[in-house]
Amino acid sequence: MIRPFVPWDILFISKLQRRGVALDLEDALTQPHRPLLAAYFSPRIYTCVLSEVERGRRREGFAQMREGGGRPAAEVVYLAPALSVDEEAPAIWRRLLAHLSAEAGRRGIQRLFARLPEDGPEVGAFQQAGFGVYVREDIFRLARAERPSRSDRIALRRQRPADEWGLQQLYAAVAPRSVRQSEGLGCWEDRRRPRLEGYVLEEGGEIVGYLGVGRGRLGHRLRVMLHPRAYQWADGLIEYGLSLLAEHPPRPIYCCVRRYQGGLREALEARGFQLFASQAVLVKHIAVRAEKPVVKLVPALEKRAGAATTVRFGG
């Protein structure tokens, strides 16, 4: 039986979360996910629990998905138990992922995402549940950053609400069509994650670069997006981001780069970043149930439609 989390599941979640796995590595490295607290206090987190006995085998597990802010999308962020700690885990994952997909459809969610270790067994488990890989990401890590001065070589300004359209155009110029189709409209910014402090680079009134800076308890993060014709600014954007993070407690800095952003790798390595891990990004397109509209006539028309009309011919 699978059902939503309720307050008396505290001990159940507390026990199993020690054997579970956080699926998004970049999040885990910077702002670790705490399943029990998320189940209780986060309105964007949906938690479901499984507890059943089938053919003498007890199966227990739980899963969590995080809804995207303002978009019909969600991401699977936690599963327990991990595949490596329980021989029943593959069957448990199949049941939980099927339930999350059904729940997503009931909530009007059109896309369900997941970020998984690129070469791990998790990818196969999700593919069996109907997910498909559509892009791969490399996570670069800077263990110790020198304290750079704020660069004057690049003129960045703080992101404003009016930049939404320009950033969407930048995303369309950077991401391949297959990625844009998988992610849908409005995806220049990953709204499933904590909002970053954003800066933009303009040329001729067009946004050609974006820098996102995020601070976490365990690590900080950078996000860089550049128009294909603006990669000469890559070093300047990274330097600017490092200067902003230098004002905060020293922690490792992570930058997640998608494979189609190959021009960023050289600039990151020149600044001391090293490849730390790689992950696959998967999506499952959800069939959303549409309510059939009921056509109802205005009362006045109903009366007219129900009244018989007599037509006389001749005298």
Give a written overview of the molecule:
The structure is a single chain. With 315 residues, the chain is α+β, with helices and mostly antiparallel strands. The C terminus is likely disordered. Strand 4 and strand 5 form a beta hairpin. Strands 1, 2, 3, 4, 5, 6, 7, 8, 9, 10, 11, 12 and 13 form a 13-stranded mixed sheet that branches.
Corresponding CATH superfamily of the largest domain: Gcn5-related N-acetyltransferase (GNAT)
SSE sequence, one letter per element: EHEHHEEEHEHEEHHEEEHEHEH
* Number of E-state strands: 13
Tell me about the largest β-sheet: 13 strands, mixed
Q: How would the global form be characterised?
A: globular
Mean pLDDT: 87
How much helix is in the residues? 25-40%
CATH architecture of the largest domain: 3-Layer(aba) Sandwich
Q: In the CATH scheme, what's the topology name of the largest domain? A: Aminopeptidase
Terminal CA distance reads 78 Å
Proportion of residues in extended strands: 25-35%
Which radius of gyration do the C-alpha atoms yield? 25 Å
Going by helix content, strand content and strand pairing, the class is alpha+beta
Number of helices: 10
